[in-house]
Each structure stands twice: as C-alpha cells, then as structure tokens.
Specification:
It is built from five helices and seven strands, in the order βαβαββαβαβαβ. With about 180 residues, it is of the alpha/beta class. Strands 3-2-1-4-5-6-7 form a seven-stranded parallel β-sheet, sandwiched between helices. The longest helix has 15 residues.
Amino acid sequence: MMKVAIIGFNIFSPGGTCRSNINLTKEFNREGIDVVIYNSRSFSQTDILSLRHMESLSEQVEFRPILDLGKDDSIDLYIITRESFFPLAQIIKFYYPYSLVIGEIHAPLGMLPENLAEDLYALDYVRVSTESIKREFQVRYGYDAILVHHVSTYHVSLPEDNVQKSTSNLYVLSRFEDDVKC
C-alpha cells in the first residue's frame, strides 16, 4: 500500500493552496492511497473533525504537525506544497534518501523566493500547472525535472439557477479573496 505525505502551511484555513491540497488528498484516496497531511500551523482535534466532516475525508487521511516530519518510514512520496518549505526536502532526503520528493509551485513565478534555486537540488521533481510555466521555470532556474499537472477542479460546481443560456459570451465564475489565502 502506497503512502503519500502532503506538507503544507495550514490545511484548516481557506485559500487556493489549501483547496488544492484537499483535492489532491481526495484524488489519492480515490486510488486507495493513504495520505498524511503535515501542517505547519497548530491544530486541534476539533479542526480535524470539522475538516473531515466538511470535506468528507476518510480515515485514510492522517493529520500531523510538521515537527513530526522524518518520523514515519512508511511514506513513499512527499509533496511539498509551499515554495518556502522546499528546504524541508533536505531533511526528508537525509532520513529517507530513497523517498520521492516533489515540490509544487503555487505562487506566480515572479513572487517566488529569491533563493529558490538553492533549494531545488533536494527535490526529485517540481510540479507546475501548465506547459508555459514549465518552459519559463526551466529558463529561469535551469531546472528540467518538471511535471506538468493542472490543478484539480473536482470541487467546482456551477450553480444551476445562475447559469446563463448558451451565448457567444464568456461566463466566468471566480473569487478573489487574497486576505484568506494560505
């Protein structure tokens, strides 16, 4: 049985990266893969129960503080979902040199940490969402181990009562709440 660790900032708060982590967790669970979510912010049992209930998360999902990183030798794949956490790949590789470590790029390339290039060597791959981001990342960082995988949209559902009749116009449903991003 495969086991995946997702390392993030705060899975219990609203925001795009948190949503992506929840979707990724559900996708792994659909494939029968166990997931351990390492959270950098403190959390309570109530937080876990609330998130399990709101997102219908199975018991295949464990929640651990980020300080527990490196204490579980049953994890096959680590996914780091915050660019400033990429240095954690060095710790993972120290304890488990044969585990696979993927760093996900969620921020726009222009907003990435200045020293990001220094932290890429311990990653096995970097995941980006489009081919154009992949090309730009390759040029900017001289890094070629890049996976392109779009962001999951399983959680998106259009409200049927608000959907307009088919026209040649473009209909976009979006939200811009920068103050709640994690």
